[in-house]
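seq as requested:
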Amino acid sequence: MELHDLSGGAPVLERLQTVAEAALAQYDLSPDAIVTILNVSENATYRVDDPATGRRFVLRVHRLGYHSHKAVMSELQWMTSLREAGAINAPAVIPTTNGRWIVSTEEPGSDEPRKSVMFEFVPGVEPSEDHLVESFEPLGEMTARMHAHTRRWPLPAGFTRHHWDYEAAFGPAPRWGRWQDAPGVGAAEHVVLQRVDDTLRCRLEKFGHGPDRYGLVHTDLRLANLIVDGATTTVIDFDDSGFSWYLYDLGGALGFLENHPELDGMIDSWVRGYRHVLDLPDAEVQEIPTFVLYRRMTLLAWLGSHPNTDTAAEFGTGFTDETCVVAERYLRTHG
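struct tokens:
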């Protein structure tokens, strides 16, 4: 099965619309509730409007073959614990009329049912890119609050999430595919990127997996997964959350910004905010470029395994070219 099972165009979207509409029957909604597609990436996300009550929700229909029922439940448990502890603002999970958080709905033409989850609708907008350096300080503080909560939160029985370590990213069966298959990776690019791969493996092994450095993280705290409403920022999309290095959350936040002229300022700002809450030794700060490039390489691999997506079409071979530029800069200091 393709990693990106939502790439089949209109026929797939029609089937998913049917799945989303069928899922609504299990919630406390009027028969007039309307489902409208918001976006399609790995999952399909819908806005749900109930004209009888004026209430609005968000329904996420999951991709096939990625997360088990236990893994999705674990995601929701962690997100809810963060929310209830006041560590961050996160959407509430909306239960069905029977109190379940996960709905399983048959998909026409498929032997595998789709899992769906309903969340409260969070008003607001994605943060502006006009003040990136300034915005990374509160993001660093918010990330540290998440990490502080994670370190003291006892995992529920049966809790399971992916690991995002070197083996998961670049091992024999990489979760997001192989960077070698990305568009534009020719012989010259392969030489540079293989040097990076080898360097990342060595440095991450040396950095270690100690509990003060490695734990449960969001992994994708980029602007698209933050919703700002006045003075309130809400974190969404915990779908790729899992176990990794805490600094990988900064790498995720800087995804697609690795070649930005204000990159160093954003990093400094994030570190400053993080240190308002948790200690971050200088030795770990010096390793931040490793996690920035680690994330960049996973994104490169994702593009290679998702050639039919709009994102792959938008970036083309240019993403590989820019990755090599970022890689050469990294190798000069950490290679």
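The beta strands are 34-40, 44-50, 55-61, 93-94, 103-105, 114-120, 214-217, 226-229, 232-235, 242-245.
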